[in-house]
Every structure is written in structure tokens, then in C-alpha cells.
What does this fold into?
Amino acid sequence: MVQVTETENTLPAPTLAGDANEDGKVTIADAVTIMQYIVNPDEFGLTPQGMANADIFGDGDGITVMDALRIQEIQLGL
It folds into this structure.
């Protein structure tokens, strides 16, 4: 019999919310990085730190298009 249990989230704590590409600032490039990751994660992977930084929308629901949208809203001052 195999028992499946949930594991703890192993991502590090975010160092800069929204900084998906880990360049030390939050810009539209981070939104693009998130969208590329969503479309093709095998080619446009994120580091564990980048994943932690990218998840800024929702309650730890993972990286979604809403994270990219939130970064765009921040850039527009909304």
C-alpha cells in the first residue's frame, strides 16, 4: 500500500516581491519572465528564488497570469 502525504512548500522566502528574473528590481521584464515560464516552463525555467519572488498575487497559489498582471499594474501605478 502506498500512502501519499502533502509536503511542505520548499520555496525560499521571497527576497523582492515580483522580481521573477532576480535582477534586483521589479519591471515589466519580470511580467514577461512569468508569462514565458507559464507558456514553456521547460525552456524558460525559474529558480526556486525566482518562483518565490514571482508569486505575488493570491495566497501562495503558485505562479499564474495574475502574478504577471499584478506586476504590470504596479508598473502603471494602479
In short: The helical segments are 28-39, 48-54, 65-76. The chain has a mean pLDDT of 89. The chain is about 40% helix and 0% strand.
